[in-house]
Request: fold
Amino acid sequence: MSELFLMVTVTSRKVTKKFSDFYTSMGLPVSFITLGSGTASSEVLDYFGLDGSEKGILFHLITDTKWKEVKRQLRLRMNIDIPGIGIAFLVPLSSIGGTKALNYLTVGQQFVKGDESSLKDTKYDLLITIANQGYSEQIMNAAREVHAAGGTIIHAKGTGSHLAEKFMGMTLVPEKEMIFIVVRTDQKNAIMQAIMQKAGTGTKAGAIVFSLPVTDTAGMRLMEEIEEEG
Reply:
């Protein structure tokens, strides 16, 4: 069995394209890229050799085996251990909505599916839905029908769209929206299924959805109280 992770890379915006090309050369052609800015204190920035400039943030799905290879090449080819280059880290996935989406997101990687999550006692999951731009409200409406709360929308650009027709029988536009929704773990499957049915790969939204285990939360008390009353 293999483990599957969301790999997040944060680097200077001016070298984001260089990192994207590097990951493609490593057999990770499907990525989602968005922009951000640094907010750390000057002391932290100085310690890590970073600056407060605009950042590029890259998201990839990666297996544990592939990560060992990529991590080594990040050090050798991208000099990521040099302060100021960037950071890359992994977050474990708990599930992916649909086999077609799984094959598309892990194209070229050897992945043997095991249990959904090694973090069995988590109470919440973070659902990440990636869809064509302009369909976030359709996705949120589908999620709300099965009692999801609000979400956060991030604009991004996708790479590897040319592979979508091979794995999912459809064309994806590069302009994307990423919708983040924190849900109770026991509601996760119903919400993911609702999104796939109402806005999935068979629709113009072309949504792909996967989940990350959330080990702890703050600020969810009102949601818990409402659910208990219901």
